[in-house]
Specification:
By secondary structure, this protein is α+β, with helices and mostly antiparallel strands. It has one domain. The chain has helices at 2-18, 24-40, 53-69, 76-84, 107-119, and strands at residues 43-46, 49-52, 95-97, 105-106. Strand 1 and strand 2 (49-52) form a beta hairpin. Helix 3 (53-69) packs across helix 4 (76-84). The longest helix is centred in the N-terminal third of the chain and has 17 residues, at 2-18. 21% of the residues are buried.
Length: 124
């Protein structure tokens, strides 16, 4: 009986800890990254369709909410890898195209570069 109760309590504790939001500094970085995306005027490709940066931000926020409910975002790099680099349904990488740029780049590379600029204190 004692062992069963311990197992149940441990399972509950694990379940509760799994639904943790990203740490505040990480969430602030992610919010800054998504704000840069929205302000960029770039286009965002998901599964072969181009979307505005504002639509991309909203989509990525929904994915972030889902991952936070699962307790899976402990760093901004995890957010980029798990939510912002590709489609969870098709597996296709997301792409970003800015201005007159002909070639689109992988969103992971674009977001990684923007994250480095945020951390270096550069304005977007």
């Amino acid at each position: 009986m004692k062992r069963t109760l311990s197992t149940i309590l441990f399972s509950l504790a694990c379940g509760l800890s799994a639904a943790a939001p990203a740490p505040a500094p990480v969430r602030a970085e992610i919010d800054a990254l998504l704000a840069r995306l929205q302000a960029s005027g770039c286009q965002f490709n998901r599964n072969g369709t181009w979307h505005s940066a504002a639509d991309a931000r909203n989509h990525l926020l929904r994915k972030l909410d889902y991952l936070e409910d699962k307790g899976k975002v402990q760093s901004t790099e995890q957010f980029i890898a798990l939510a912002a680099s590709g489609s969870s349904s098709s597996g296709k990488p997301y792409k970003v195209r800015c201005g007159a740029q002909v070639e689109a780049v992988d969103s992971a590379a674009w977001l990684g570069s923007e994250l480095a600029a945020i951390r270096a204190g550069k304005r977007g």
